[in-house]
Fold:
Amino acid sequence: MYDVAIIGGGVTGAATARELSRYQLKVCVLEKEEDVCCGTSKANSGIIHAGYDARPGTLMARLNVRGNEMMEKLAEELDVPWKKNGSLVLCLSEEGFSKLQELYDQGAANGVRGLKILDRDEVLRMEPNASDRVYAALYAPSAGIVCPFQLNIALAENAYVNGVEFRFCTEVFTVKKDSEGFLLKTSKGDVRTRCVVNAAGVYADRFHNMVSEDKIHITARRGEYFLLDKSAGQHVERTIFTLPGAYGKGVLVAPTIHGNLLIGPNAEDIGDKEGTCTTGEGLSEVLTKAGRSVKNLPVRQVITSFAGLRPHEDGHEFIIGEVRDAEGFIDCAGIESPGLASCPAVGEMAAGILREKLKPEEKKQFTAKRRGILNPSMLSMDERNQLIRKQPAYGNIVCRCEMVTEGEVLDAIRRPLGARSLDGVKRRTRAGMGRCQSGFCSPKVMEILSRELKIPAAMVTKAGKGSELIVGINKDML
Structure:
């Protein structure tokens, strides 16, 4: 019997798990994939929004601003790279200025600090590659960028170190309320728990509707992106938005925390909650819209494209709280943008509800800090040479594009909640995220995974069962 079972290992589930790990509670995270950060959390813009876009008085507004304020301390504690680079919302005509003023007023009402409306000349001095058509812009200095993979992984690792159990490849089929709490039927047997946190992303409506007569509906809203090489990473310094529309904040152009340039997303509501394919039409739309706000886009430097799904709730609002007719069932549903920026505050709120309900004792020993994977390139030459003498694997380059060493790959596999697939290694070390997109490093990473996990190379996967890279081998030969 668990005190709390969290459905979903994205940033919402991981942030809630970390907050709950401060208390004397038996907590587990149930994740249907082979790792954390395999859904919405892995494919987004990586933006820490300032908080001017959400309507005043909404949970979105309150938790966005609170999450933004929490991010600096959280990133420091968990050793996650982040940068407060600021953002600009461009207005390209005099007719749109009233909408820009409305965003400013919303941000002020939400408590966003430092907002300022800039004129054309001020914008172009800050961002020379902004469109020549720019009329004015809303500047938000508190906006930032973060690595969504590393944030999600760090939250989960820290929760795990503090006692939270993670059960991967464990798909939840049904949730049923009973006299003892809840019975969850999963692909790996039954799970009993006093309370449930529903952090299931695009599937959160499914689990909510199993226990409540007050139905909710979540639509998978697909967004497509281009990622450009690091040679294009200085094209803009800040995150560049256009005025938002009915489907969200629109197509952005932004540097990433690792020095690439990101363009996207568009927004399309689809019926397939696994529909992360890109489309020619969608990617063309992204380039067209991005070109309206930023000129001379270096599109020849595109190294990959991808798509992610946002869990859009019909009321366009976060749903966080105990379900009226299912005591002990806590929703964290509809966590779309600004969900990444809000995740520390969402986890704080969800854990606060459970703290009031369960009245647990606070742990005397809680490990708040976590160290990330050592990057030798951040060391001085003398320090690097000393490291290589002690651990020669740090002198063996595995990924030439990102200069990732074998030592980093080994750390990714051996650390708490270590990588079990190529994608797991990639999200922890960036091996495979460079210009060649794993064309050269994947065989070596597969070899290391095979050796460390003590499995045949044919059983090494890209992202869990069913994504094996070596095919056509008779299993009797393994």
About this structure: The first helix runs from residue 11 to 20. Residues 376-477 form one domain.
